[in-house]
Amino acid sequence: MGPFETRLSEISKQKKSRVILALDTIKSREFDLEQARSFVQSVERYIVGVKLGLPAFANLCQETKRLIQSFPELPFIADWKLADVPHTNRLVTQKLLKLGFSATIVHAVVGEDSLKEVKSVADEHSAGVVGVVAMSNSGASTLNSLFDTLLQKCVRAGIKCFIAPATFPDIIRKTKQSVEECVVLSPGVGAQGGDSKLAVSAGADFLIIGRSITDSENPEKQAQLEAQNSWR
Questions:
Q1: What is the pLDDT of residues 89-99, one digit of tens each?
Q2: Which amino acids are annotated catalytic?
Q3: Domains of the chain (ranges plus CATH)?
C-alpha cells in the first residue's frame, strides 16, 4: 500500500470505522465553508476520510483549501473522476494536490497514458490515485461491462486502489481476487441501495457514504451507525 492507503488503514483501525464521507450537499442543499466545517466536525470521530465532489467544490471554490486545512487528521479525496487527455489530467491533478487533497479519483477508461500522468504527479506528492473500474448506478452497465479491461489498465499504470461499487458486490469480489494487496473504496451504500455488510463481506476496504449521513436528521448518530455497520 502507498502512503494514502496506509493512512486510511491506520485511521480505520483507530476509529473502528470504514466510512468515507461523501460530501456534496447537506440536507440536499448547498453549503458554505462554515457549514461544511461544522458538519464534518460533527461526524469526524466516525469517519476515516472525506470525498469532496464537484457540487461541493462549485460552492466552496478556493475555500476548499481552508476546509481541508481545518481537518489535518482526515484525508480528503478529490472526486472529479478525471477523464481527459494526459496533459490535462496532469494539470488538474497538480492543482488538486496543491489545494491539499490526499488523493484523486480518475476514470480508467481514458487509457494508460492518462492514468500514468496522474500517478506520476501523485507519486511526487506522496498522494493516492483511485481508479474507477465500475460505477454504482444502474445505468453504468456499458462501463461496468469493461470492468476487467479497466482494472488491468489501472494495474499497468501502477494503480492498485479502486472504486468498486457496493451495489455490485461481485465486482468488489472480482477486484480483490484479481489484484493482490489492492484497496477497494465502495460507493453506493444507503441511498443507492448498496448494503454495507455485503460490500465488506465481498472485500470492500472502505465504504463511501453520502446522503444517508448528509441528509439525516441526526447526522452524528447516523455516522455512528454507519461506522458500526461497516466494522462488524
A1: 999 999 999 99
A2: 81
A3: 3-231 (3.20.20.70)
